[in-house]
Amino acid sequence: MRNIVGKALSIAAILAATAVSSPAAAQADVYPSREIKIVCAFPPGSGADIWVRFFAEQAKAFVKQPIIVDNRPGASGLIATTYTARAKPDGYTIFMHSPTSLAANYFMFKDKPIDPSQSLVTVAALFNFTFYLTVEAKRPWKDVKELVGYLREKGDKASFATTAPPGQLMGNLFKQLMNLKSVEVPYRTSPDTINDYKSGVIEFGFHDGVFAFAQQRAGNLRILALGSKERMPSQPDIPTLNELGATGLDVPGFFGVLVPAGTPQPAIDALNRLWVDVVGTPASKEFILKSGGEPVSMSATDAQKRYLESFKEWGRLIELAKIEPKG
Predict the structure, then answer these.
(1) Confidence (pLDDT) at 28
(2) Regarding beta strands 93-97 and 253-260, do their DSSP bridges make them parallel or antiparallel, or are they unpaired?
(3) Which CATH architecture has domain 33-129+252-320?
(4) Which residues are CB-neighbours of 86 under 8 A, at least 6 positions away?
(5) Residues linked to residue 253 through DSSP beta bridges, in sequence order
(6) Chosen CATH of 132-244 out of 3.40.50.1820, 2.60.40.10, 3.30.360.10, 3.40.190.10
(7) What is d(CA 249, CA 93) in angstroms, rounded to the nearest whole number?
(8) What is the pLDDT of residue 246?
(9) pLDDT band at residue 327, thresholds of 50, 70 and 90?
(10) Which of 146, 215, 243, 307 could disulfide-pair with 220, CB 3.0 to 4.6 Å?
(11) Radius of gyration of the chain (CA)
């Protein structure tokens, strides 16, 4: 009886080994072998959505697999963040977002359904960016000094627009550092602000480069300054708020690709190679520069390190900006 059982186990082992070494099994291990879903935390047509859809389209030439964009807006990105963190960690559900914004959200909300520093892993960086201080194009203020003079005179009757955590942080830092009393007005998307700019409901705002530059080219808004400590090499003529009196205002960010914690290392490595290749194309570089960003490529290890470091920095900045966590 023992001999029969032993022979049966041996045959099973041989069949299993044969199956693993077969072409079909080898093909199943190739990543990616099926559709990839990219989760977007913003509604269709928003600045970040434009970024996501552009990169998704560029990636199709490299993976030869369907790539779909799944918009899950709401709660300043928490809905999409939580959805991705709880997805199967197999590399087929990825989150294209600003890892620095995830760090901001962690400190801006009291209710934390997940800790994104533990439940998500950054596998690639796409570009560095910052947000831009803008005013309505027909307003008389030609620089930040003129705007600040007006805002101090108007006091708490002045308002500014924000649509995402980097802009919210930048706006409140600007308010604190320049001794302003302007009131923040949150908007769901940047396009929602245009009518209020034109009607005078808001005097200024902070927006991503896709929206800010597009609206400046359309003649609707004027960019006065940006929110990182150093000028962006792609836009050397735009001054920083730091050099214009808001000393210490430095809100840099980077846009990247994240996956659920526990995603196998081969998938992480494959995703990193994919997005490094995508960023390296002339079309991607042109698009990034036109949007006021700077292309960046780094290893998955370095991208994750930068992600974790941003949690410490954003915690300090949010405290400096005196932003009270939301319920």
Answers:
(1) 43
(2) antiparallel
(3) 3-Layer(aba) Sandwich (3.40)
(4) 114, 119, 260
(5) 129
(6) 3.40.190.10
(7) 35
(8) 93
(9) low
(10) 215
(11) 23
